[in-house]
Amino acid sequence: MMEAPPVIAVPPPITSHPPPVAEKESFEVRLGTFWLPRIGMVLLLTGMVFFAAYYAPRLHVLHKVALGYLVCAVLGGAGLWLEKRTTGLARVLQAGALALTYFVTYAAHYVEQFRVIESPRLALALLSVVVVAIVVVAQQRRSPTLAGLALFFGYYTSLVGGVATFTLAANAVLAGAALYFLARNRWVPISYGAVLATYLTYALWAWKVSDWTELHRLIFGTGYLTGEQFGIRAAFLTLYWALFAVGGLIVNRAAMAPAERNGLATLNNAFFFLLFSLLMHHAHPAAQWQFQFLFAGALLLASAAAYQRFRPDRSGLDTYFVQGLAVATLGVVSYFKGAQLVAALALESVFLVWLSRQVNSEWVAWIARAAYVFAAVAAWNKLPDWSDRMIVSAWFAAAAGLLNARLESRREPVKPEPVLASFAFGLLATALAMTAARERFAASFLPWAWLGGAVLVALIGGGLRTREIVWAAHLPLAWAHARFWWGRAWPVDQSLALVAVTLAFGVVAWGRQRARELPAQAAQVLWPYALLAALAWLGLTREHCAAAWQLTAFAAVALLLFGAATLLGERVFAWNGL
Fold first, then answer.
1. Same domain for 80 and 37
2. In Å, what is the CA distance from 514 to each residue of 521, 533, 569?
3. What is the pLDDT, as a whole number, of residue 562?
4. Which of 106, 119, 366, 515 is 20 to 30 A from 143 via CA?
């Protein structure tokens, strides 16, 4: 007798429960646990600074210093005691203790009512020791909150106590600590905050914001700084820029994402460029171009260093490289004037358009476009007092613009931006050439200049195989038609030339479409030219033919248009003949 197989019980299905969704903290909880402790610490530090430094006249200087360190010890002890109970509040208390220790050491040299250290070097060394202690404590606890708050309170107490030259040196030490946290722990927000706080402290020191009556002169005045004052300001700004630039380059590539690294570099470069440009304006306004060219060179060197450090990632290279080119362009604007500026910017735009193709950078192309637009604006800004040199520079810039249009039309990959940029270059170049012609030739010769310019630009566009330049050739042709109807009466030969050139443009456009086997589009392209030519002929007849001959002239042009319709097989001529 065979035994029945054992029955295996099927286990019940395992149901997966989604993890519980954490409840969002209410505003009241967030306010009580996050903001109020920080606001309270700011108020406590502010009160300690003013009380110990300014509002305790009966206390001896040593007593003030001892009181300051005693408060630091109390805050630190309270933070240690609360660390296992309420971590957030404990971190705030510990950060306040470290920041107050920094300020007491800082005030022991800088604040007169607090001074027990006469040597600035000794005071700076002691501050460095305090900053190292901040780094060690934050590193042991792996707490970005503690590190960020301690550095923030350090900057804050320095500002409240008064900003002086010693403050700028002390802030460089704090910035070094922020960069250490960036390199070691990837605490990126701390480095961004250090950039803002460091440059803001410099601005408050340089412009003496507390004296509002002098603020306008200090910011917008020119040439009021002595050589010594300029040297101190330039040294600190250069130190800050080098500190953050080198710090961003030497950190491990895993410490920051490319976007974070490039953002830090851009923020540092922007603050440095703005503040140093104002410094040059305050001390040496005529030598602004020297700083701009030097800074552009430094940015280009930094771009090479960024590529060597982080390759194959090119984002750092592109960031520094594009910003260096932009600053160099501003240097060109500051150095050259008048006709030289127009020619220099036009030449630079050609180089940058070519360079954008080589490095495949849309940002470089935009700098080239901006340079050319500024060249055109600089030329038109000098109207109506154009010298012969300005006329030559305008024609040179027009030739450069047509070359730019050719280069832009060949950029890869083909996108709408290069097509529009190519047409814009051609249009601006043609407009510059037309302006130069108006300034160069007599009014009676200008119709020939418009028509000849239209033909010349169209021939250049055809020779360079750039349709955008051919489109731009319609600008002088359209201007010629406008002047024909709303200007003074044209002679017969110029009026006939207008009709002939308009028909020639239409026939060429029609032929191009027919060659592509697009007869419907060919007719659509042709009719505006035929209509404009017919209207110009009517205007010519009305102006120069006697009343008895006008009907005969109308019939002649109608027969001519009917003949063209029969020859070319296009009914549009017949409709215009009617």
1. yes
2. 8, 21, 11
3. 54
4. 106
Give the number of domains in the chain: 4
Give residue-wise pLDDT tens across range 491-540.
888 888 998 898 888 878 877 776 665 566 666 777 788 778 878 877 77
Q: Which of 334, 355, 389 is the last residue of a domain?
A: 334
Residues 321 and 388 reside in one and the same domain: no
In this structure, the answer to whether residues 341 and 357 fall within a common structural domain is yes
Residue 33 pLDDT grade (very low, low, confident, very high; cuts 50, 70, 90): very low
Structure tokens at 395: 């024609």
- Asked if 389 and 339 count as a contact pair (C-beta separation under 8 A), the reply is yes
**Separation of alpha carbons 122 and 117, rounded Å:** 7
What are the angstrom distances between the C-alpha of 115 and each of 71, 107, 108, 240?
Answer: 18, 7, 4, 27
pLDDT at 31 over 50: no
Least confident of 213-227, 333-347, 400-414: 213-227
* R_g of the chain, CA atoms, integer Å: 37
Contacts for 243 with CB less than 8 Å, ≥ 6 apart: 172, 175, 176, 179
At a CB cut-off of 8 Å and minimum separation 6, what does 65 contact? Answer: 104, 108, 114, 116
- Whether 194 shows a pLDDT value over 60: the answer reads yes
The domain in which residue 90 lies consists of 33-162
* Domain membership flag for residue 361: yes
Are 196 and 145 found together in one domain?
A: no
**Whole-model pTM?**
0.74
Give the Cα separation of 39 and 501 in Å (integer): 77
Q: How far is CA 489 from CA 484, 502, 561, in A?
A: 7, 18, 25
In a domain, 309, yes or no: yes
Peptide bond into 312 cis (omega under 30): yes
Of 488, 519, 538, the last residue of a domain is 488
Handedness of CA 81, 82, 85, 90 (dihedral sign): negative
Provide the token pair at 532: 């404009």
Per-residue model confidence as pLDDT tens digits over 347-356: 999 999 999 9
Is the backbone peptide bond immediately before 413 cis, with ω within 30 degrees of 0? yes
Q: How high is the pLDDT of residue 572?
A: 47
Q: What's the CA gap between 329 and 267, in Å, rounded?
A: 20
**Cα–Cα distance between 52 and 64 in angstroms, integer?**
6
The answer to whether residues 161 and 107 touch, using CB atoms and an 8 Å cutoff, is yes
Q: What is the pLDDT confidence band of residue 22, given thresholds at 50, 70 and 90?
A: very low
12 part of a folded domain: no
